[in-house]
Amino acid sequence: MFPNFLPTAVGQLTESASIALAQSIQTTALATPLTNQPVTTTYVKQGSGGNPILLIHGFDSSVLEFRRLLPLLSEDNQAWAVDLLGFGFTDRLSEIPYTPTTIKTHLYYFWKSLINQPVILVGASMGGATAIDFTLTYPEVVKKLVLIDSAGLTGGSRLNKLMFPPLDYLATQFLSNLKVRDRVSRIGYKNQSLASIDALCCGALHLQMPSWDQAVIAFTKSGGYSAFRFEMLSQIVQPTLILWGDADKILGTGDATKFKRAIPHSTLIWIQDCGHLPHLEQPQITAQHILEFSAKASSIEA
Prior knowledge:
single chain, alpha/beta, Rossmann fold, globular
Protein backbone atom coordinates (compact mmCIF):
# COMPACT_ATOMS: atom_id res chain seq x y z
CA MET A 1 0.00 0.00 0.00
CA PHE A 2 1.15 3.51 -0.82
CA PRO A 3 0.65 6.43 1.61
CA ASN A 4 -2.65 8.15 0.86
CA PHE A 5 -1.07 11.61 0.55
CA LEU A 6 0.78 10.59 -2.64
CA PRO A 7 -0.88 11.24 -6.02
CA THR A 8 -2.77 8.26 -7.44
CA ALA A 9 -0.25 8.08 -10.30
CA VAL A 10 2.12 6.44 -7.80
CA GLY A 11 0.43 3.22 -8.85
CA GLN A 12 2.20 3.52 -12.22
CA LEU A 13 5.61 2.82 -10.67
CA THR A 14 7.11 -0.44 -11.89
CA GLU A 15 10.67 -0.67 -10.54
CA SER A 16 10.87 -2.49 -7.21
CA ALA A 17 13.21 0.15 -5.73
CA SER A 18 10.78 2.94 -6.68
CA ILE A 19 7.78 1.11 -5.25
CA ALA A 20 9.58 0.27 -2.01
CA LEU A 21 10.75 3.84 -1.43
CA ALA A 22 7.35 5.34 -2.24
CA GLN A 23 5.73 2.95 0.23
CA SER A 24 8.15 4.07 2.96
CA ILE A 25 7.57 7.85 2.64
CA GLN A 26 6.40 9.34 5.95
CA THR A 27 5.15 12.75 7.06
CA THR A 28 5.85 14.89 10.09
CA ALA A 29 4.02 18.03 11.19
CA LEU A 30 7.10 20.21 11.46
CA ALA A 31 7.02 23.35 13.61
CA THR A 32 9.23 26.13 12.23
CA PRO A 33 9.50 29.90 12.74
CA LEU A 34 8.39 30.37 9.12
CA THR A 35 4.68 30.15 9.89
CA ASN A 36 2.30 29.67 12.80
CA GLN A 37 1.07 26.36 11.44
CA PRO A 38 3.21 23.22 11.09
CA VAL A 39 4.60 22.31 7.67
CA THR A 40 3.66 18.75 6.73
CA THR A 41 7.06 17.51 5.62
CA THR A 42 7.73 14.28 3.76
CA TYR A 43 10.79 12.15 4.38
CA VAL A 44 12.17 8.64 4.40
CA LYS A 45 14.24 6.99 7.12
CA GLN A 46 15.84 3.59 6.73
CA GLY A 47 18.28 1.73 8.97
CA SER A 48 19.52 2.43 12.47
CA GLY A 49 22.80 2.86 14.29
CA GLY A 50 25.99 4.11 12.72
CA ASN A 51 26.30 7.59 11.31
CA PRO A 52 23.16 9.52 10.35
CA ILE A 53 23.34 10.30 6.63
CA LEU A 54 20.97 12.97 5.29
CA LEU A 55 20.28 13.10 1.54
CA ILE A 56 19.22 16.31 -0.23
CA HIS A 57 17.57 16.07 -3.67
CA GLY A 58 17.97 18.37 -6.67
CA PHE A 59 15.79 21.06 -8.25
CA ASP A 60 12.14 20.15 -8.89
CA SER A 61 12.71 16.67 -7.51
CA SER A 62 11.81 14.56 -4.48
CA VAL A 63 13.04 11.83 -2.14
CA LEU A 64 12.30 9.34 -4.94
CA GLU A 65 15.57 10.55 -6.49
CA PHE A 66 17.34 8.37 -3.91
CA ARG A 67 15.37 5.19 -4.51
CA ARG A 68 18.49 3.20 -5.43
CA LEU A 69 21.04 4.84 -3.13
CA LEU A 70 19.26 5.13 0.20
CA PRO A 71 18.76 1.37 0.80
CA LEU A 72 22.49 0.78 0.19
CA LEU A 73 23.46 3.43 2.73
CA SER A 74 21.05 2.18 5.38
CA GLU A 75 22.49 -1.31 5.85
CA ASP A 76 24.70 -0.17 8.75
CA ASN A 77 23.62 3.44 9.18
CA GLN A 78 20.48 5.50 9.65
CA ALA A 79 19.86 7.01 6.23
CA TRP A 80 17.45 9.89 5.76
CA ALA A 81 16.05 11.71 2.74
CA VAL A 82 13.77 14.74 3.03
CA ASP A 83 11.68 16.74 0.59
CA LEU A 84 12.88 20.33 0.78
CA LEU A 85 10.50 23.20 1.44
CA GLY A 86 8.64 23.93 -1.81
CA PHE A 87 9.64 20.63 -3.41
CA GLY A 88 8.67 16.99 -3.57
CA PHE A 89 5.60 16.04 -1.53
CA THR A 90 6.16 18.49 1.33
CA ASP A 91 3.25 20.92 1.80
CA ARG A 92 3.49 24.26 0.03
CA LEU A 93 1.87 26.87 2.25
CA SER A 94 0.92 30.14 0.57
CA GLU A 95 2.23 32.37 3.37
CA ILE A 96 5.83 31.08 3.13
CA PRO A 97 8.27 32.61 0.64
CA TYR A 98 10.26 29.94 -1.20
CA THR A 99 13.88 31.03 -1.10
CA PRO A 100 17.26 29.48 -0.19
CA THR A 101 16.91 31.09 3.27
CA THR A 102 13.52 29.53 4.05
CA ILE A 103 14.69 26.20 2.62
CA LYS A 104 17.66 25.97 4.98
CA THR A 105 15.55 27.15 7.94
CA HIS A 106 13.02 24.40 7.24
CA LEU A 107 15.84 21.88 6.81
CA TYR A 108 17.40 22.91 10.12
CA TYR A 109 14.16 22.38 12.03
CA PHE A 110 13.67 19.03 10.31
CA TRP A 111 17.15 18.02 11.48
CA LYS A 112 16.58 19.38 15.01
CA SER A 113 13.19 17.70 15.38
CA LEU A 114 13.97 14.25 13.99
CA ILE A 115 17.75 13.70 13.95
CA ASN A 116 19.42 16.14 16.36
CA GLN A 117 22.97 14.87 16.01
CA PRO A 118 25.71 15.79 13.52
CA VAL A 119 25.11 14.30 10.08
CA ILE A 120 26.93 13.35 6.95
CA LEU A 121 25.14 15.68 4.55
CA VAL A 122 24.82 14.52 0.94
CA GLY A 123 23.59 16.93 -1.73
CA ALA A 124 22.98 16.10 -5.39
CA SER A 125 22.85 18.76 -8.13
CA MET A 126 20.90 21.74 -6.69
CA GLY A 127 20.85 19.77 -3.45
CA GLY A 128 24.62 20.26 -3.38
CA ALA A 129 24.12 24.03 -3.34
CA THR A 130 21.56 23.57 -0.56
CA ALA A 131 24.04 21.42 1.36
CA ILE A 132 26.82 24.00 0.97
CA ASP A 133 24.55 26.83 2.12
CA PHE A 134 23.35 24.76 5.07
CA THR A 135 26.90 23.77 6.06
CA LEU A 136 28.11 27.37 6.02
CA THR A 137 25.13 28.50 8.14
CA TYR A 138 24.96 25.57 10.58
CA PRO A 139 28.50 24.14 10.68
CA GLU A 140 27.85 22.40 13.99
CA VAL A 141 25.19 20.22 12.34
CA VAL A 142 27.38 18.83 9.56
CA LYS A 143 30.06 16.28 10.40
CA LYS A 144 31.07 15.63 6.80
CA LEU A 145 29.86 16.89 3.43
CA VAL A 146 29.29 14.97 0.19
CA LEU A 147 28.62 16.77 -3.09
CA ILE A 148 27.30 14.76 -6.05
CA ASP A 149 27.59 16.65 -9.37
CA SER A 150 26.81 19.75 -7.35
CA ALA A 151 25.41 23.08 -8.41
CA GLY A 152 26.75 26.16 -6.66
CA LEU A 153 29.39 27.70 -8.89
CA THR A 154 26.91 29.25 -11.31
CA GLY A 155 24.13 31.29 -9.74
CA GLY A 156 20.48 31.69 -10.61
CA SER A 157 18.45 30.19 -13.44
CA ARG A 158 17.61 31.30 -16.94
CA LEU A 159 13.99 30.58 -16.03
CA ASN A 160 13.82 33.53 -13.63
CA LYS A 161 13.66 35.89 -16.62
CA LEU A 162 10.36 34.26 -17.55
CA MET A 163 8.76 34.37 -14.13
CA PHE A 164 6.25 37.16 -14.59
CA PRO A 165 2.63 36.82 -15.81
CA PRO A 166 1.68 35.26 -18.13
CA LEU A 167 5.11 33.78 -18.89
CA ASP A 168 5.45 32.27 -15.40
CA TYR A 169 2.41 30.09 -16.10
CA LEU A 170 3.80 29.12 -19.49
CA ALA A 171 7.19 28.29 -17.96
CA THR A 172 5.64 25.90 -15.45
CA GLN A 173 3.52 24.36 -18.20
CA PHE A 174 6.76 23.76 -20.08
CA LEU A 175 8.41 22.21 -17.02
CA SER A 176 5.43 19.93 -16.43
CA ASN A 177 5.36 18.61 -20.00
CA LEU A 178 6.31 14.93 -19.80
CA LYS A 179 8.09 15.01 -23.14
CA VAL A 180 10.26 17.87 -21.91
CA ARG A 181 11.02 16.06 -18.66
CA ASP A 182 11.87 12.91 -20.56
CA ARG A 183 14.34 14.81 -22.76
CA VAL A 184 16.00 16.38 -19.71
CA SER A 185 16.15 12.96 -18.03
CA ARG A 186 17.88 11.49 -21.06
CA ILE A 187 20.50 14.25 -20.98
CA GLY A 188 21.10 13.41 -17.31
CA TYR A 189 22.00 9.78 -17.98
CA LYS A 190 24.88 8.38 -19.97
CA ASN A 191 23.10 5.02 -20.07
CA GLN A 192 19.94 5.97 -21.95
CA SER A 193 18.14 2.77 -20.98
CA LEU A 194 17.81 4.18 -17.46
CA ALA A 195 15.53 6.97 -18.75
CA SER A 196 12.60 4.58 -18.38
CA ILE A 197 8.87 5.08 -17.91
CA ASP A 198 9.39 4.36 -14.22
CA ALA A 199 12.10 7.03 -14.02
CA LEU A 200 9.77 9.52 -15.71
CA CYS A 201 7.03 8.72 -13.21
CA CYS A 202 9.44 9.17 -10.28
CA GLY A 203 10.55 12.52 -11.63
CA ALA A 204 7.06 13.83 -12.34
CA LEU A 205 4.90 12.41 -9.55
CA HIS A 206 5.27 15.46 -7.30
CA LEU A 207 3.98 17.75 -10.06
CA GLN A 208 0.48 16.66 -9.06
CA MET A 209 0.86 18.04 -5.54
CA PRO A 210 -1.17 21.20 -4.69
CA SER A 211 0.56 24.51 -5.52
CA TRP A 212 3.54 22.86 -7.24
CA ASP A 213 3.56 25.52 -9.94
CA GLN A 214 3.27 28.47 -7.54
CA ALA A 215 6.19 27.22 -5.44
CA VAL A 216 8.41 26.68 -8.50
CA ILE A 217 7.57 30.19 -9.72
CA ALA A 218 8.27 31.71 -6.28
CA PHE A 219 11.59 29.91 -5.83
CA THR A 220 12.78 30.76 -9.34
CA LYS A 221 11.75 34.42 -8.98
CA SER A 222 13.80 34.56 -5.77
CA GLY A 223 16.89 33.96 -7.89
CA GLY A 224 17.58 30.55 -6.40
CA TYR A 225 21.11 29.85 -5.22
CA SER A 226 23.71 32.47 -6.01
CA ALA A 227 27.17 31.34 -7.04
CA PHE A 228 29.34 30.62 -4.01
CA ARG A 229 32.54 32.62 -4.17
CA PHE A 230 35.80 30.76 -3.64
CA GLU A 231 36.40 32.64 -0.38
CA MET A 232 33.02 31.35 0.90
CA LEU A 233 33.81 27.77 -0.09
CA SER A 234 37.18 28.06 1.63
CA GLN A 235 35.29 28.47 4.93
CA ILE A 236 34.00 24.88 4.77
CA VAL A 237 36.05 23.11 7.45
CA GLN A 238 34.33 19.74 7.22
CA PRO A 239 35.94 16.86 5.32
CA THR A 240 34.26 16.95 1.91
CA LEU A 241 33.84 14.25 -0.71
CA ILE A 242 33.14 15.38 -4.27
CA LEU A 243 31.65 12.69 -6.51
CA TRP A 244 31.26 13.55 -10.19
CA GLY A 245 30.07 11.65 -13.26
CA ASP A 246 32.79 11.74 -15.91
CA ALA A 247 30.17 12.26 -18.65
CA ASP A 248 27.97 14.91 -16.98
CA LYS A 249 26.16 16.83 -19.76
CA ILE A 250 24.02 18.90 -17.40
CA LEU A 251 26.75 20.76 -15.49
CA GLY A 252 29.78 19.53 -17.41
CA THR A 253 32.92 18.38 -15.62
CA GLY A 254 34.89 21.60 -15.06
CA ASP A 255 33.15 22.52 -11.80
CA ALA A 256 34.36 19.32 -10.13
CA THR A 257 37.98 20.47 -10.11
CA LYS A 258 36.93 24.01 -9.14
CA PHE A 259 35.15 22.67 -6.05
CA LYS A 260 38.22 20.57 -5.25
CA ARG A 261 40.48 23.63 -5.39
CA ALA A 262 38.11 25.84 -3.39
CA ILE A 263 37.12 23.52 -0.51
CA PRO A 264 40.16 22.96 1.74
CA HIS A 265 39.67 19.42 3.06
CA SER A 266 38.14 17.89 -0.05
CA THR A 267 38.65 14.78 -2.15
CA LEU A 268 37.44 14.43 -5.74
CA ILE A 269 36.44 11.03 -7.11
CA TRP A 270 35.27 10.59 -10.67
CA ILE A 271 32.42 8.13 -11.24
CA GLN A 272 33.33 6.41 -14.47
CA ASP A 273 30.94 5.86 -17.35
CA CYS A 274 28.32 8.04 -15.70
CA GLY A 275 26.32 11.21 -16.38
CA HIS A 276 24.82 13.78 -14.01
CA LEU A 277 23.11 11.25 -11.73
CA PRO A 278 25.67 8.86 -10.15
CA HIS A 279 23.23 7.98 -7.36
CA LEU A 280 20.82 6.62 -9.98
CA GLU A 281 23.21 5.46 -12.69
CA GLN A 282 25.97 3.96 -10.52
CA PRO A 283 24.35 3.56 -7.09
CA GLN A 284 26.57 0.72 -5.87
CA ILE A 285 29.79 2.60 -6.59
CA THR A 286 28.36 5.85 -5.26
CA ALA A 287 27.23 4.17 -2.03
CA GLN A 288 30.60 2.48 -1.60
CA HIS A 289 32.45 5.78 -1.79
CA ILE A 290 30.04 7.48 0.63
CA LEU A 291 30.24 4.63 3.14
CA GLU A 292 34.04 4.50 3.01
CA PHE A 293 34.17 8.28 3.45
CA SER A 294 31.68 8.07 6.32
CA ALA A 295 33.67 5.43 8.18
CA LYS A 296 37.07 7.04 7.66
CA ALA A 297 38.52 8.99 10.57
CA SER A 298 40.07 12.27 9.48
CA SER A 299 42.89 14.33 10.89
CA ILE A 300 40.35 17.14 11.39
CA GLU A 301 38.25 14.93 13.68
CA ALA A 302 41.23 13.46 15.54
